[in-house]
Amino acid sequence: xxxxxxxxxxxxxxxxxxxxxxxxxxxxxxxxxxxxxxxxxxxxxxxxxxxxxxxxxxxxxxxxxxxxxxxxxxxxxxxxxxxxxxxxxxxxxxxxxxxxxxxxxxxx
Length: 108
What we know:
Layout: E1 10-15, E2 19-27, E3 33-42, H1 52-66, H2 68-71, E4 78-80, H3 85-91, H4 97-107
Parallel strand pairs: 1-4
Antiparallel strand pairs: 1-2, 2-3
């Protein structure tokens, strides 16, 4: 599906033990969810050692970088991930430097 700038985008991202991936989605005129773009890659050996919430944040970071051309200028868009521990990790007063950098990047 070609992107429709008049409709909101949403990003779905996920991480496994060895790879990360994401999809940029929109709903078509009939209300069906359609893929606009998708990206994936294998994790580097060091990334495979990240905790699960770190892998999910890596996938989110990768998604926002790869799909940036579509998302720049959008007023709002949603990012969906399947890991509940991200909520807890993001509210923690003890963040790793990596997590702090990612959260700063997401704030942009």
